Amino acid sequence: MINKLEELRAKALSELDSIKDPKSLEAWRISYLGRKSELTQMLRGLASLPVEERRAAGAAANQLKSFLEQSLSQREEAIKEAEIARAIEKGKLDVTLPGYPTTLGRLHPTIQILRQMCDIFVAMGFEVVEGPEVEWDYYNFEALNIPQDHPARDMWATMWMDYRNEKGERNMLLRTHTSPMQIRVMENRQPPVRVIVPGKVYRYEATDATHEAMFYQVEGFAVDKNITMADLKGTLFEFARRLFGKERKARFRCDYFPFVEPGVDMAIDCFVCKGAGCSLCSNSGWIEILGAGMIHPEVLRRVNYDPDIYTGFAFGMGVERMSMLKYGIDDIRLFYSNDLRFLKQF
Ligand code: PHE
After folding, report:
1. pTM of the entire structure?
2. Most-buried pick from 39, 71, 158, 306 (CB within 10 A)?
């Protein structure tokens, strides 16, 4: 059989060498590699050979098959090239003619800024983790110190799923923030943890220039021994300078979120008026960009972290907000209204 394969190789190659057009090439393919070709028949017949012979014959036959396939595609290329050369020679093909322009797609401005934000935190040693957009009441509220009927629930206008648990309660929702991932990550890991969570969040909200029913947030948190408010401040101020420019000033002010203590909001100085006061910053000179704080001991206890040993900080920021500030966009609805005149600017 090996001899026969050698004969076949020689014959196939010498025929292939003289082929100059695609039609004969196809005929060659059918006769040497087609279903009814000698080689294919031989490959099929392998099973009936005695075991000792089968192995060597099989290897040789398969080797010949891939060799012939390779030779075929080389020949195909050569024929194509010769055709083009002939066309150029005859003046039938003008390669200097400009081609048709293809329309290039691009990343949505939200995704562009989201990636910049993630890069900044990754450079600082944070890991990127994602989580579910459909969440349980427990993770979105309960585990974050926001029990049923607590007035703090009013801070997040919620879209509930049409689902009830065995007690008849609606306990499934579209997450209103990325903070539930603090719990999910801590439940599954031991400190030290340094994680950021980019993702979509939802609010039951009438849309206007600064509100959308769906938008993106980036959550971030770090838990370890000896983490202090100074680490939070250093991390976020550095983030603001890297995203908005070195000369940016930042400010912390007390704020309330049930899952942090103390809680703050962070603002940067308005880059339109440089702090003097204008319409963008409602005359305050500052623009709020995120909420943050030290993770509440009760939250740590709930995920079995000992708050006497470990401390941590957390922050959450709106992504479209960052983009609006960075590029001077004055209406959040522009992001998701699919107007190419807007999207093409980024
Ligand atoms: N999750 C909060 C919000 O959406 C922001 C926040 C995150 C505040 C982490 C403090 C710590 O409003």
Report:
1. 0.72
2. 39
